[in-house]
Task: structure prediction
Amino acid sequence: MYERVLIATDGSPGADGAVEYGLTVAERFDTGVDVLYVVDTDIDPLVNREAAEALLESDETIGQRALTQISEREPRLDVHQAIRRGTPYREILEHADERNVDLVVVGTSDSTTEYLGSTAERVITFSSVPTLAVPWGDPNTPSLETIDDVVVPLDGSDAADRAAEHALAFAELFGATVHGLYVVDTTVYDLEDSPRSIIGLLEEGGKNTLEALTQQAESVQVPSTWRVTRGRPAAEIFERIDAVGADLIAMGTRGRSGLPEHLLGSTTRRVVRDASCPVLSVS
Result:
């Protein structure tokens, strides 16, 4: 499934969860690893050139120390270290493309001022490869070794179907159960005004989509469950996450109704921001 994993870090303790997750994924999938530190060149224009360069060089020193420490954690892995200068999310995406990375691992944060908070959302939005977003510095974030349950929200989109394939790969490797979910979106369909036949067709389509997931799971001997429900997608996803005690969520970055001006679907955005467990997003 993966041959090279990219772990982006800013060297802070809050990023440790993403680092540990990325290293464990690489070890379990037997992949190469890139660890990347981006020196953010967005410096106050009032700072003179000499002082600005000193700040950048100091940041590079911090970055090199952080990358060395990460490399030493898993000496058995093939680790490639890299420091780049520029806008963090752009440099992460360019590095992933140049190095033919199969999976990007980043930390998320509630604060948009955090380096890998707003950066993570931009990476997820524009990345052409799957992105694993790990909650920032949360001591309650489960170890990757404990993955038992994976929730997969499906909506019939190609991105969601691809996310299901990745979810099954994780579940097969870690011995987890996959829980499929299809939500008839009540923000789009007014259940009181819509014809019963329309609602019935939507639910039947959801059932067929989830049964296809069940067949895929059976083919790789992964246990699975599925559920069709009605409501607001994000709320229903969180309810399902809580009900099964999910350790991982795998979902598409864009739904079937996604618009070009909203590349990262609102449901995906909310799940990534508010989920207490890692989210694997697939475009």
Q: What stands out?
A: The first strand starts at residue 4 and ends at 9. Confidence is low (pLDDT under 50) at residues 110-116, 256-263. Helices lie at 16-29, 49-73, 88-98, 115-126, 158-174, 196-219, 233-244, 266-274.
